[in-house]
Amino acid sequence: MCAWPLRITVAMDPELPPLARRGEPVAIGVPLPRGRARRSTEWLLTNANGDAVPVQSTTLDRWGDGSIRWMLLEFRADVCATGAAAYFLSAATPGSMVAPAGPLSVHHAGDVIIVETGAAEFHVPRAGGALLARAMVHGAVAVEGASLEAEDLDGQTWSFAVRRTTVERTGPLSAVLRLDGALQNLAGEAWLDVMARLQFHAGLGSTRIELTVTNPRPAKHPGGLWDLGDPGSVLIRDLSIRFNRAGVPTDGAAGSLDRSRPLAPAGDEFAVYQDSSGGVNWQH
Fold first, then answer.
1. d(CA 109, CA 98)
2. Is 209 exposed, middle or buried (0-12, 13-18, 19+ CB in 10 A)?
3. How confident is the model over 129-169, as pLDDT tens digits?
4. Which of 26, 61, 106, 132 could staple 146 via S-S, CB 3.0–4.6 A?
């Protein structure tokens, strides 16, 4: 059974340093019993004070009768540094929902897809050699292109070539664009497959980039065993995302390898080194 309204509790991770969150993007999967929510169901999300909060829902799976089985719920949460915040989900009635003050918009414009968040404007290429074509803040160009590059065992450079860009989902609060392509050399030969997801949020000038790099060469499995050093394996000596800052002054890069530690200044670049199995013995 599913009790309504459904209570959603958002709390700080105890492993992280205390930090108050204001308008923090939250995404949560919600399972629903058969027949509980139809295609036309709209949702109302309220905070502990009973105030309606803008919410975006995406159907992920349906029961055999067409009712919603799983949905993705996205909203912005306010959480104090040491406590928790409660939100309540129920079916909306006419006039009960509230829209965000500045909803996100996505539209096609020639060879790019433009995402406007209210805080920034992002140009995502539909094809070509850029991971991000441009980012603008208050009408000024902040980033003039971002690229993905890799280096193999022999020092050869491979660059990301976008073959297709699709809008996976979009709504008033967030949007996800998926870029599919491959790392290629100057001759156009493909080395590794790449899938990049760029996520944008209304009212924010930040972008979340998720990369999946896949080796399309099958392993040989001699004798049915999965051994390191298989002829189909490859070594990625370096994989980098490079941003052209368009001359805009910044404080440089910051990064952290442990989510329990805050971001630390890293100058003009943030590098992570991982030794597979001992440098030149990577195949062992």
1. 29
2. middle
3. 999 999 999 889 999 999 999 999 899 999 999 999 999 99
4. 132
